[in-house]
Amino acid sequence: MVRNYILIFSVMLIACNRNSDRGEVSGTLYPITHPGLEEVRVTDAFWLPKIDRNREITIPYAFGKCEETGRIDNFAKAAGLMKGDYEGERYNDSDVYKILEGACYTLMTNPDPEMRSYVDSLVTLIAAAQEDDGYLYTTRTVSPENPAPGAGRDRWIDVWVSHELYSVGHMYEAAVAHYRATGERTLLDVAIKNADLVMKEFGWGKREAAPGHQEIEIGLVKLWEVTGNREYLDLAQFFLEVRGTPQDHLKHEPGTRFDVYNDLEYLQQHLPVLEQKEAVGHAVRGAYMYTGMADVAKATGLNQYLEASEHIWHDVTSGKIYLTGGIGSKSHGEAFGEPFELPNMTAYTETCASVANVFWNDRLFMAYGKSDYYDVLERTLYNGLISGIGADGTNFFYPNPLESDGSFLRAGWFDCSCCPGNIARFMPSMQKYIYAMDSKSVYVNLYVASVLNTEVEGGALTIVQEGNYPWSGDITLTVEEPADGDYALRIRIPAWTGDSPMPGNLYSYIDPMQGDVLITVNGKEYNYKTENGYAVIDRRWKKDDLVSISLPMEVRRVKARDEVESDRGKVAFERGPLLYCFEEADNGKVLDLLIPGSVNRSFSFDEELLDGLGTITVQTGENGRSLKGIPYFAWNNRGRGEMITWIREE
């Protein structure tokens, strides 16, 4: 395990663990909610090893890299416990906060004394680094006369670039996770003290400026949920409302490394939020903002923010999203491109953008209850998100291209390591997306073997989900403890069982699905009705009622709209929620592949390949040659080599 600070800072822990006079009143957000992380236990053969690997390998590794690169020492220096200059980029604090958030989520479901000890020591260190008035941005505290480039010469004067607000937004999220995992207020009180300072500085008639990198909006809403302090919600709303207003004092000299911050579209500052109809600019920042818009809308009743977020969602799904669910096609500015600008070799599709895309789609689902959003979420989750972490748990992708000439390789860390931290915090919270509830329904959104133990209106409810998804489409749900009263199970019918892989009609299947979705209850076929993409089974449930779901899984060809120049005349192959790719390791050179318009395809499971993968075989028609495809998320785990997803078709 990484170096432990707890002995050094134990005295400071006592000093920082002060009481707050704020009540623990939870805010109300969405009509549809998720069970708590501790209410869902994953047993899945696909996901459980990934979650375990994140806990056992990725989080300790990432903490170790934060120590090795000075990210954690920066807090010790800010606290006066070490001497030396600040190390790294101005936003490096945020990496520590994200990994800490992931560790706290992990502790909620897998108590680990060693990890808990490390978390406690790190929280104490962060508290010690906070300045007396609540300010927390270690590069300025450590080096007030010479902070890291881009930090600005003084507090708050350059929030388009400094990432002061972005960093503390991640700290707020970590603080809420820590409080919920441990019941202790140490980090929560740090967050509250900082948020109170931000409230004094920003607002109408104060500093009227929005952060260049969105995130604090999400963190403030989470703080409001925990504390009940409406001022945090109001501040989140302010940071949305102030966007698109004149802020000329934040302009930068042309030719500097920061002149990209003069591009108002890059910053989503070109228009007031409610007037923005298209996804433009930095994809991660945008998706965080669209998530925050949905949060603020549902918390305040200002549904125009929700409607604006959904309008932008339609813009993305109709022309700015990859088959992987990845968003942000341009390497310049890590940005959304024009409609249908979806190059494969140079696709940026940052891992962080996929994480943010999951957050965004989940918020829209909780507001509207439509399966469309989970069709996008599932696609992103199984393809463009988990592709960001290698099979060893210690190598990562920042961009996730859909084609490679062999020059691309995963890396163990980055100067800007936002993506490893985002993976580390996402994986231990993955199970919350499997189920959701409202007052009359339980939603089954993801097919992940798991046990749900929760409370509904009628009392305790236990559902056991079993299956071997995504390799098999056969799933069972056993109602082990039924609660009392009538309520509905709403079972998502995935878009990939129909004519299009996801909403928006950007992509479509060439081959019609041969099989049908079949649902039985206690062995008898159930003639279900469909609402918002969900099969609805509404009844008074009894102990051991058994629902069986059969989703047809066939290897299908996909085409893109003709407007997508990069994919014109090409096909991709999918099975279930997975996009497949073809690597040089299995097929030799692949960039110039050409296949006939009709090919035989088959599926098999290779137990020896990367701990077990479902693979496909495609006949090319060239002297009986066949191609082996592996799931896109698993590519680049066997060294350098060419890779392709879209293949030219005769």
* Overall spatial form: globular
Q: Low-confidence spans: pLDDT under 50, at least 5 residues?
A: 1-26
Q: Would you tell me the structural class of the helices and strands? A: alpha+beta
Radius of gyration: 24 Å
How would a crystallographer describe the biggest sheet? Answer: 11 strands, mixed
Q: Round the mean pLDDT to the nearest integer and report it.
A: 93
Q: Can you count the beta strands?
A: 23
* Terminal-residue CA separation: 54 Å
Quickly count the helices.
17
Tell me roughly what share of residues is in helical segments. Answer: 25-40%
Strand-residue fraction?
15-25%
Describe how the helices and strands are arranged.
Layout lengths: L5 H11 L23 E3 L4 H22 L2 H8 L13 H18 L3 H17 L8 H5 L16 H4 L1 H19 L3 H16 L14 H12 L2 H12 L41 H18 L2 H17 L31 H18 L2 H15 L17 E3 L12 H9 L8 E3 L3 E4 L5 E7 L2 E9 L6 E8 L4 E7 L14 E3 L8 E4 L2 E2 L3 E3 L2 E7 L4 E6 L5 E5 L9 E6 L2 E6 H4 L6 E2 L5 E6 L6 E7 L6 E6 L10 E3 L2 E3 L1
Parallel strand pairs: 4-8, 18-23
Antiparallel strand pairs: 1-5, 2-22, 3-4, 5-6, 6-7, 7-14, 8-13, 9-15, 10-11, 10-14, 12-13, 15-16, 16-17, 16-23, 17-21, 17-22, 19-20, 20-21
Helix pairs in contact: 1-5, 2-4, 2-16, 3-4, 3-5, 4-5, 4-8, 4-16, 8-9, 8-10, 10-11, 11-12, 12-13, 12-14, 14-15
Q: What this model shows, in words?
A:
With 650 residues, the chain is of the alpha+beta class. Among the domains are: 437-493 and 516-550, Sandwich (Maltose phosphorylase, domain 3), CATH 2.60.420.10; 556-649, no CATH class. Helix content is 35%, strand content 17%. It is built from 17 helices and 23 strands. The chain has helices at residues 6-16, 47-68, 71-78, 92-109, 113-129, 138-142, 159-162, 164-182, 186-201, 216-227, 230-241, 283-300, 303-319, 351-368, 371-385, 418-426, 584-587; strands spanning 40-42, 403-405, 435-437, 441-444, 450-456, 459-467, 474-481, 486-492, 507-509, 518-521, 524-525, 529-531, 534-540, 545-550, 556-560, 570-575, 578-583, 594-595, 601-606, 613-619, 626-631, 642-644, 647-649. The strands form three sheets. Strands 2, 9, 15, 16, 17, 18, 19, 20, 21, 22 and 23 form an eleven-stranded mixed sheet that branches. A hairpin with a 6-residue loop joins strand 6 (459-467) and strand 7. It is globular, with a radius of gyration of 24 Å. The model is unreliable at 1-26 (pLDDT under 50).
